[in-house]
Design goal:
115 residues; alpha+beta; Double Stranded RNA Binding Domain; two-stranded antiparallel ribbon; 3 helices; 12% strand
Length: 115
């Protein structure tokens, strides 16, 4: 594990980072910094610890909303297939299969024999 130095709201922090996770950690730091700066810039909260708590709650709420949307989308997909509504993948596969059948028909049209 290596350590990287980051800036959040203008203050430096030395964070432990697992091997191969630096890009993901830096992205997380950017989200936290943006969330905290947004709260600070609104001017209603001044204490850094309260800003951190509010930013954490906002990020956790956003994550929960994203997970709920993903769960709803995953639950709706099988229902759409069961109802006969083709998904994008199914439609694309059907189109490719139709094109392949046309090419086979053209190739076999010359002698009319499959073998």
């Amino acid at each position: 594990m290596k350590q990287i130095e980051v800036q959040i709201m203008g203050q430096s922090y030395l964070l432990g980072c697992p091997d191969g996770g630096e890009a993901q950690l830096r992205e997380a730091v950017e989200r936290v910094d943006a969330a905290m700066c947004k709260i600070r810039d609104a001017g209603k909260v001044k204490a850094r610890d309260r800003i951190a708590v509010l930013a954490s709650l906002n990020l956790a709420f956003d994550l929960a909303a994203q997970q709920a949307a993903t769960t709803e989308a995953a639950a709706a997909a099988p229902a759409a297939v069961a109802a006969g509504t083709p998904s994008t993948d199914t439609t694309e596969t059907d189109t490719k299969a139709g094109q392949l059948i046309q090419r086979l028909d053209q190739a076999l049209a010359g002698d009319g024999h499959l073998l």
